[in-house]
Amino acid sequence: MPLASATSGANPPQVKPMAVGLLISPGNDPAGAISKVKHLGLTNCFLSLDSYIGDFSKARAGQLNDALRQANVVATTVEVVGPGKLIWDFTDGPYTIGLVPEATRQQRMDALKSASDFAKVLDIAQVQTHCGFIPENPRDPAYAGTVRAIREVAQHCAGNGQSFLMETGQETPTTVLRTIEEVNVPALGVGLDTANLILYGKANPVDALESVGPYVKSVHAKDGMWPTDPMQLGKEVRIGQGRVDFHKVLAKLHALRYQGAVTIEREISGPQQMEDVRQEKIYLEKILAEVGV
Questions:
Q1: Measured distance CA(263)–CA(18) in Å, rounded
Q2: DSSP labels, 71-95
Q3: pLDDT digits (tens, 9 = 90+) for 109-168
Q4: Helix/strand number for the chain, H first, E second
Q5: b/e per residue, 234-256, with b = 16+ CB within 10 A?
Q6: How many CB atoms lie within 10 A of CB 161?
Q7: Prior bond to 214 cis, omega within 30?
Q8: pLDDT band per the 50, 70, 90 thresholds, residue 13
Q9: HSE toward the beta carbon, residue 142, CA cutoff 13 A
Q10: DSSP letter, residue 210
């Protein structure tokens, strides 16, 4: 069976604007991962696919497609951040995260292109990644190469009818906006991670929307605290316990006519993760109702 036959080729299914979803890593058990989405009463998911790097095969596509269809769950976006070493801090992060480090840049570009081709087969219209600590100084020697790399991946995604999204976190909103304008590919957009902007000490997500709001095409609903140790990121916490003002964020997104999902991401594992997600779903849906969604 050719890879292209994993789906019917119909238009990609849609989710209700600002519908709450869940970030999952399907791994070798996509049916089990997607069943969690269904059991939570959610309609959509965001797929973290780093475990698929090097094996974006027709078998995986068929298995994942079957699991999504059987659960009647829509996958809105795929993401890869590898391959290679990733250190999520302020000291080694600039040298290991995203498309900025030259040592891993081509490998990651190739992985993103493969993920884009894989997503096309599944009628998934968005590909996302962390582009890394993009220099705030546009004359920094690393800036031009990073822009070229982002442009190449964005053009590949555009050729597949997809958006390529820069996940917020390591960059200031001004740097993100400058990069979008420099890349100059309409398919390039923003994946707003509400907590990462705080965890990295870069911006308040409410204020960030003043700069990048019109480009936001996916949202990770996540909460966190500002860094208190300047060598380490702030702490991620359950939604409602951190510094993100979700009422203001969601109201502003609604005013901007944001059409994508609101994807819960809780960076712990085990039973407590699922209990937290249940509570977070209730919390977010209450706010969405209050802002008129």
A1: 9
A2: HT-EEEEEE---SS----SSSSHHH
A3: 999 999 999 999 999 999 999 999 999 999 999 999 999 999 999 999 999 999 999 999
A4: 10, 10
A5: bbbbbbeebbbebebbbbbbeee
A6: 13
A7: no
A8: low
A9: 16
A10: H
